[in-house]
Write a structure and sequence with these properties.
single chain, 80 residues, alpha/beta, Rossmann fold, three-stranded antiparallel β-sheet, three-stranded parallel β-sheet, 6 strands, globular
Length: 80
């Protein structure tokens, strides 16, 4: 992973960050609604990301504490 000032070549990027390989990203997806989960999971897996799915806030905190993550995507209505 490299920091960048916004110059993006053929590499994938998030604002301010370039990833040589999107498969290097570990994503924690926190979602309890099956419909939303299916759409998000498919979109992220199609990009080749490593995804951990958590159904609640405490599960996500446990995952982050033990494994960490590069990116967390969470619903604003996830039960604890």
């Amino acid at each position: 992973m490299q920091m960048t000032d916004g110059a993006v070549g053929a590499r994938q990027s998030l604002p301010g960050i370039i990833f040589e390989n999107m498969a290097d990203l570990k994503v924690v997806l926190v979602e309890h609604a099956p419909g939303s989960l299916a759409v998000l999971k498919e979109a992220l897996w199609n990009d080749g990301l490593e995804i951990t799915i958590c159904s609640g806030g405490f599960d996500a905190l446990d995952e982050l504490g033990s494994q960490g993550a590069d990116l967390v995507i969470a619903s604003s209505a996830v039960p604890i």
